[in-house]
């Protein structure tokens, strides 16, 4: 799979613009179960990514992903900065410059493990991991990652949060989609929209 | 080598500054002390870059103990430690301790010339 500079730019723009367009929705989700700053923080981070899109896209995929991750770490803040930053940085570290489909999937697996370590969390705690893990499973099984992401984000609604601010709400976290899970699904959807799969 | 430095990280700049004031009251100028908190828009939050800068301000060859409040602050502090130059990375610890009490206890311990591990242990004794 060759990911040239034009495609890298399309991917980065699609992800950043999607998150920015949904910032209001993400903040509303976070107001229900968290501290209400998720959309604002993510918008700040991805606006900074968008501002540097040409310089970032000029780099090979591993370095470009690292740059996106570092920008998120420094600009997003909160828990989302380190978590989404780690996702992109580790994905970059694990990805060869011209990955095969199998190598890309295994790079995502490594990135998900890094997010688990960063957040000291795992699947089932009502977090972004509850989207990323089903997406990985769908990719491995040849399924539709975007459909898996959307279904998985919605499936966080009846879950009880075990990590983050939402966990302080206990039972009251039930009934709301997790903002981080929704962000993860938006990112997956944007990537799939550019790559055109399936 | 000097005394261990203390960094205080809170989502609220007022909490961080207040905790720093309380620690300073105990130890005066004997301990390098820095704090950070809040986001770029003047709201509540923490970020790795600000923590990195605070570690730099409180730097001591004896190391730096970082006191943090909630979730995101812990992760951002851990991230900041990973972003340090390799020769500094092993000399900064993020304490599992309540931020206000931990800052005061850690600063008092640091002012006595204790090594980093002892400063950390003193703060972490406060956690159940």
Summary of the model, kept short:
The complex is a heterodimer of chains A (198) and B (128). With 198 residues, chain A is mainly α.
How does the helix and strand content of chain B classify structurally? Answer: alpha/beta
| Content of β-strand of chain A | under 5%
- By CATH's scheme, which homologous superfamily of chain A applies? DhaL domain
CATH architecture of chain B: 3-Layer(aba) Sandwich
Proportion of residues in extended strands of chain B: 15-25%
SSE run of chain B: EHEHEHHEHH
Largest interface, C-beta within 8 A: A-B, 23 and 19 residues
- Distance, first to last CA of chain B: 32 Å
Strand order of the largest sheet of chain B: 2-1-3-4
The name of the CATH architecture of chain A is: Alpha Horseshoe
The rough form of chain A would be described as globular
Unreliable stretches of chain A: none
Count of separate structural domains of chain A: 1
Global outline of chain B: globular
What summary fits the major beta sheet of chain B? 4 strands, parallel
Average pLDDT of chain B, rounded to a whole number, is 95
Structural class of chain A comes to mainly alpha
Count of discrete alpha- or pi-helical segments spanning 4 or more residues of chain B: 6
Give keywords.
heterodimer, A: 198 residues, Serine Threonine Protein Phosphatase 5, Tetratricopeptide repeat, 10 helices, 69% helix, B: alpha/beta, Rossmann fold, 4-stranded parallel sheet
